[in-house]
Amino acid sequence: MSDVGRLAGGTPERRGLADTLELDKRLFGMVAAFVLLCLGFWVWTGGTFLSPRNIFNIAVQTVAVGIMATGMVFVIVTRQIDLSVGALLAMCSATMAMTQAYVLPGVVGLDSPLIMPVTVVVGLVVGTAIGALHGWLIGYQGIPSFIVTLGGLFVWRNLNWYITNGQSVALTNERVLDFGGTEGVLGRGPSWVVGGLLALGLALALLGARRAKRRHGFAVKPAWAEGLLIAVIAGAVLGFVAVLNAYPIAATKLRRQFEARGEVMPEGFTAYHGLPVSVLLLIVVAAVMTVVARRTRFGRYIFATGGNPDAAELSGINTRWLTVKVFALMGFLCGLAALVSQARLQSHGNDIGTLDELRVIAAAVIGGTALAGGIGTIYGAILGALIMQSLQSGMGMVGVDTPFQNIVVGAVLVVAVWIDTIYRKRTGALK
Amino acid sequence: MSVDRSGTPLLEMRDISIAFGGVRAVDHVTVDLWPGEVVGLLGHNGAGKSTLIKILSGAYKADSGEVLIDGKPVRIDNPRDARTHNIETIYQTLALADNLDAASNLFLGRELTTPLGLVDDARMEAETRRIMAKLNPNFRKFADPVKALSGGQRQSVAIARAVYFNARILIMDEPTAALGVHETAMVAELVKELKAQGLGIFLISHDIHDVMGLCDRVTVMKNGRLVGSERVEDVSEDDILSMIILGKNPRREAA
């Protein structure tokens, strides 16, 4: 009847740069808002907002919420909510702190190389198990996720309190602290290698998708547009690495490191931070979660269930088991975020992760995840976390009082969703 | 077109019962379906026809009774079981995920994957284009979520799903309820074509004209019970109406 290949070529005429680049318009808007925000604070702070030091700090402070926000996207996309992530983070952090500070040293010794891996595994297992328990109560027992995780918020926050007796636990294991940010950095050379590989990987992914489309005879965007997109993305990645590589490590700290090794620091020696391990962790999480969302059956079923749970069920998808898996994954990511948080703070405090559930949900929602389910992206959630952290950091730098910082963040959340609602009504995406 | 009813029927549902709470939604109902046959399932709302069909498609589990395909008893505990027996269903509510595109819906639950086990969107879209070129050549919106499609386009996605996976038994629950005149005619054409290919089709409908035009037999239910199954050439529209409304089989009464 009709030639499928030619049919694909008959796309309507294109308008505007965003269209030609086939960019998600919401993403385009968010990136624009983020750039404006940065430029605004840059001018306001006389340049210090975009200094390597501050960019490094914002990146490091974004990691924990960013990691959890990727999981929250899946939770919200399946039409659920998780109010317990901050408490779950505290619970994971508490078990990890007790494991590395009190349990393991007595068993394997204080300096054992086993402490870090065992601690990490304990945290991840606790998080995953609690998440799976939530998922089972929601999926198989039919208790609303709002209730299960609201209850979970109380239970895990206070179980954390109980097992640590409400006391802070100082953390000293250097390999654990490496996950925190300033302590664990890659340095210049390795950062360039990672940045280069990352840029290359993204370019290859885009080209691979283009080749797959070509092979089936679908329309692809013009070569120059693809090239521009790759150049912008690669440029952003390498630019980010360049900035972090320009942030020097304080001389006093370097001298201490040399002294710890029993050496004397040569005169005029300098070293730079580069990419922190925690940020690398977030990048890996983001990449894996994006692949899961877009290219695996699990991800496809998450979105299908959010779009129409009945259709998903009738298509043979086990939506109950899917719920367990989604919440278990959320718990796993809470464990990971707990590792980063406690390492950054170099201690487990009783109030660790307090209100993180709201930050995480806000990040996902600002990032375009629809509470009605079915819609959301991983990169959006991370961008949402980044926007909130930048806003908070910038306001702190220009001397906005803490209560007003929180007021602004709350207002931004509402306004972001408001704009999104108007946008979706206009484009007819909202029924 | 007469249906060959010698040999074994394609499908038999024997003595099926299911109750929800105290309500017997389906009460000892027996129906059968032959290859190349279209059977219209008629009855008021709440007569039990949708429930009966959902037992066949695996959405509900019968309390008692058995299902036989080609004369062999089979177990259908969930929608996946139904699919492995080549039973495909097109629901009244067009069970589609609105936020996904046509290809993702067509392959939902049975995604094509790359050797690495990742979903192969490009190949699924190519297959969708291939089958749509046959079913509905005007279909163009392959990249949009199905939310953006018209009723007829959505219906063709649902039908494409059944056709692509080589259904032998097709259940159509009010397939034309959401459609315009032209699209209804398109679905009717398709039913005839599938019938010619030897599929057995259950057609649930409210429209008696539809049923008289497309079906070989009508099966009428009322209050969960089977009123009767008659060949369309043996009954008049009035007979069918009185079966639906009064729950009486005029031919049986007369005999």
Automatic annotation (TrEMBL), chain A:
Keywords: Cell inner membrane, Cell membrane, Membrane, Sugar transport, Transmembrane, Transmembrane helix, Transport. It is found in: Cell membrane. It is a multi-pass membrane protein. The chain crosses the membrane at residues 27-44, 56-76, 83-103, 115-138, 145-163, 189-207, 228-250, 270-293, 360-387. Pfam families: BPD_transp_2 (PF02653). Its main location: membrane. Signal peptide: none annotated. The keyword Cell membrane applies. It comes from the Bacteria. Part of the binding-protein-dependent transport system for D-xylose. Probably responsible for the translocation of the substrate across the membrane. This is Xylose transport system permease protein XylH. It comes from Rubellimicrobium aerolatum.
Automatic annotation (TrEMBL), chain B:
SUPFAM superfamilies: P-loop containing nucleoside triphosphate hydrolases (SSF52540). Signal peptide: none annotated. Residues 11-248 form the ABC transporter domain. Keywords: ATP-binding, Nucleotide-binding, Repeat, Sugar transport, Transport. SMART domains: AAA. One of its GO terms (molecular function) is ATP binding. Coiled coil: none annotated. This is ATP-binding cassette domain-containing protein. It comes from Rubellimicrobium aerolatum.
